[in-house]
Amino acid sequence: MASIIFKRITAVFLTCLLLSACGGSDKSAENDKLSVVTTTGMIADVVKNVGKDSVQVQALMGPGVDPHLYKATQGDLGRLQRADIIFYNGLHLEGKMGEVFEKLERIKNVVPVAGRIDVSRLLSDPVYKDAHDPHVWFDVKLWSSTIEVVVEILSNEDPENAAFYQQNGKDFNTELQLLDNWVRTQISTVPLDKRIMITAHDAFNYFGRAYNIEVRGLQGISTLSEFGLKDRVDLVNFIVEKQIKAVFVETSVSQKNIDAIIEGCQQKGHDVIVGGYLYSDAMGAEGTPEGTYTGMVRANVNTIVKSLR
Ligand SMILES: [Zn+2]
Q: Mind listing the domains of the chain with CATH numbers?
């Protein structure tokens, strides 16, 4: 532990030199726990499951927050500076935080958990061919591969607890394999011709690939992307043609684009309703079932199955 504390103090000192605005105390040094900061709640959930009581975890992006548009606040910079380890998604999910991570990775462990997944398992961005779709958490099996990254990094930073992290990682992995089976069973109850999901942005391509559902988003894989009148008309025509009866709203994306689609369908004489609210790029509130990764997946799948069946 002594070496960790020394490293921590050195890291805090170096960070203060590198970045301005170094306020507050290093909480982790006080209570002797590894201090981890993550961007999304989904990543924080993996760290909590692996680190349990030995780790103090904080997610910068709470419920309803869109990671594509998120900019680090002054308070975030302080939290990032004081952390022992920073985990983020990578693959350009956090489109506006690249520079911050670049600066911090010179002095501490800054790890993109999805960026560590072998590219052969990733989906390409349909627009930017060199880029990959960052929404890997929608394929439960694929997301479970981030566990080993977290186990490895926590163990390196805190070798005394390595066996503990390894066991927790194993247990969480088992839980996610069961969850993956559950999702598969649930989706299989929806007839194949009804398995079409319409959402505000293209967050669900991994979900579609893993569980055999056709997915269509109005916006591209980033909410930063523009969409034009043609995209809207194309999607309306698709919904009318396929006689789709429900579209989904995402909790981290404005509903107005989906409302415009519903209106467009009505003008063509086809009634389509909001099938429910999906947790796409952010989890639910802390303390609720949807405030955990497994709860978020279950809530989404229940909503999808109920609306499409
Ligand atoms: Zn997204």
A: 2-180 (3.40.50.1980), 190-308 (3.40.50.1980)
